[in-house]
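FW: tagging you since you asked about this chain on Friday. Here's the raw sequence from the shared folder, copied in full. Didn't touch anything.
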Amino acid sequence: MARARIIGTGSYLPARVLTNVDLEQRVDTSDAWIVERTGIRERRIADATEQCSDLATAAGRAALTAAGITGRDLDLVLVATATPDMAFPSTACLVQRALGCGPVPAFDLSAACSGFVYALTVGDQFIRAGSARTVLVIGAEVLSRIVDWSDRTTCVLFGDGAGAVVLQATEDGRGILSSHLHAEGEMADLLMVAAPGKRNPGTGEVFALEGELIRMRGNETFRVAVRMLGEVVAEALAANAMVPEDLDLLIPHQANIRIIEATAKRLGMSMDSVVVNLDRVGNTSAASIPIALDEAVRSGRVRAGQNILLEAFGGGLTWGAVMMRW
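HL: got it, structure written out here
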């Protein structure tokens, strides 16, 4: 049976760098406190002219170039985002237009920080079902537009960016071996943006309402994330008859260095086998895994035959993992 394998990666980060020292001038915090609690030293911020679709298009174009194909070769475009340009049309449709893909299906998927893992799974399922052969999967966010810059517990965490992969059908043993997705709406209030929406309609002034900004109960979210990520990693290993020693590389959602270190410790993995870039880009939600993956590919850390595990946790609550052989 055909499965999806990644044949090209790409990413895009805005030019503007916002450092912890810069944040010291805005809220009651310090570089030392942020680094100790999160591992983040700086993040990228989109300028006023850059929309989510612009970041997504740039990352998608880079992935197409790496794969040696054009938009016309695609059968499907998926964009994972919690910060789309608008309610509709979807950001994926705007990307489809910008990349000259023609009238292929295109839609957005919202699963917060787990969005890329969810979208990657959807793309793989389209390929396994025979409905598509070549799929562009993008994670893109402009979280700076929904950050409360007066809340020192959350504004230090998030950045903007986009990452993309091109999936193609293969039967040679490489590619996505298994996906494991979960959600628990009972804990939705741990991490959320309550408006705009039909339940809490906005005023027309974008992101002006209190409910239109990120709210997180940090300590509770941290504890749940560590537990659930540990469980889904164990689930992925068991599904593939693997033990932790079989893993060559872990590429986690870049949320917090303490969460990443806890997952690596549970696996008995050295941090040398874990891809970490949140010190430079912060938490970019659905974009974090594909950005980290692209950096690892381009630096030569990813090599043919490696067993690679992707894992993420986000609002919803949502969490999941993807095991692949490169």
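FW: The first strand starts at residue 3 and ends at 12.
HL: agreed, and The radius of gyration is 18 Å.
FW: great, closing this out.
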